[in-house]
Amino acid sequence: EIRIKIIVKDNPTELPIFLFIYMEVSVPENAKNAFVASVKLTNRELFPSLKFNLKNNLDLFMIDEKTGEIHVRNYLDYEAKTSHELMAGTSESDDFVKIKINVNDQNDVAPIFLTAPEPVSVTDDQTVGSLIASLNAVDTDSAGSPGSIVRYEMIGKGKALKYFHIDPENGNLKIKDDLRKEPTIKQYEIN
Question: What is the pLDDT of residue 142?
């Protein structure tokens, strides 16, 4: 008499399905290889050879075919496009996940002055608080975004910071203290 042990393996009849059919994520602009999202399947362990893929935007995004992790291929630019749609799937199924990727604006564009500041002449008897110049700059980051707000700051040499003040919001340069306190100083430099 011979005994034969027969093992019956369960052959899954249903392909795994995605845990989410829609995802919305945010990614900062200018972040090379930034993590976007990770797509997940039910019963993934039953299909070890299953491979993830992207259905569109292959020039901007890449997916790890084994793990389902999606990354930015190079950089995203908020000023060029504020959001992207991506579809991730598998090679074994027509099922897919739709992913909306919102690009977060970064302050990546430096402000520029509309006109080059000219030398300013003042007399030593001008009153404290006198407006001596208005500096105007613009930032070409997307209008309304935090990166598009221009804030002014003064960097002075010597005693310039003691005697002059710039309004951080409007660029108005004013006398901060009595200029007669330093009769030997005839010139100040401010950046």
Answer: 64
8 Å CB contact between 133 and 58: no
Asked if 61 and 136 count as a contact pair (C-beta separation under 8 A), the reply is no
What does the block give as tokens for 59? 């020039």
Computed from CA positions of residues 13, 56, 22, 66, in that sequence, does the dihedral angle turn out positive or negative? positive
Which one has a higher pLDDT value, 63 or 79?
Answer: 63
At position 9, the amino acid (one-letter code) is: K
Q: Count, in order, helices (H) and strands (E) of the chain.
A: 1, 12
Contacts of 21 (CB under 8 A, 6+ apart): 96, 97, 98
CA distance 54 to 30: 21
Enumerate residues 6+ apart whose C-beta is below 8 A from 86. 36, 54, 56, 57, 61, 70, 98, 99, 100, 101
**How high is the pLDDT of residue 60?**
94
